[in-house]
Amino acid sequence: MKIKEASFVGSFVKPEQFPDEMMPEIALAGRSNVGKSSLINTLLGRKKLAKTSGAPGKTRTINFYRINQNFFFVDLPGYGYAKVSKKERDSWGKMIENYLAKRETLREVVLLVDIRHDPSEDDRIMYEWIRHQGFGHLVVATKADKLSRSRQMQQMRRIKTKLAMPDSAVILPFSALKKTGTEEVWKLLETHLETSET
Predict the structure, then answer these.
(1) Neighbours of 184 (CB within 10 A)
(2) Structural domains of the chain in order of their starting residue, each with its CATH number
(3) pTM for this entry
(4) pLDDT tens across 54-100, in order?
């Protein structure tokens, strides 16, 4: 994927605020601090387009990034941060669930998990939501540079089992630090995008 243009469109909480350009969307879901912003920046070859934060739970909105005037990356609110109130967690859950169920331009939802750990209960619930809506063909295991290659393979097998991923779904190791996995992730995302850009 050749990135000619990438821009931050805005942060929204209500469907009526979302962009209405009817372009395909790839959404990214995952726990707080799993590395969604780093994945976006790495895939797009930008250093600070998606703002990373050392404070988990900071993303409380649905953030849209327009790519090549052809499609969007959509960063969903991170979950699993203990210091957030139950009421706020519930509101994020409804926001995400409504987006997954009702967004007609949504082409795929990619779940990000930390390769160093087994999926949490929140990860399993999120993946069930994603699968229920017909998505979840790709899971990205972030922070792969923290493990040896053999340990990566072992952890990816565990993650696939814990999430009960179907045989047709793919899990890929990814490192924003070393940029490993970038081409492989793009190759799979491109199959879900109705665009001639390559």
Answers:
(1) 15
(2) 6-190 (3.40.50.300)
(3) 0.90
(4) 544 445 789 999 999 999 999 998 887 555 566 666 666 788 888 88
Strands 138-142 and 170-173: parallel
CA distances from 94 to 58, 59, 64, 71 (A): 17, 15, 18, 24
> Torsion-angle region of residue 67: left (phi > 0), alpha (psi -120 to 50) or beta?
beta
Q: Which two tokens stand for residue 22?
A: 């009817």
Q: Are 192 and 105 in contact (CB under 8 A)?
A: no
Q: Which two tokens stand for residue 13?
A: 């909480």
Question: What is d(CA 156, CA 38) in angstroms, rounded to the nearest whole number?
Answer: 20
Q: Alpha carbon 39 to chain centroid distance? A: 8
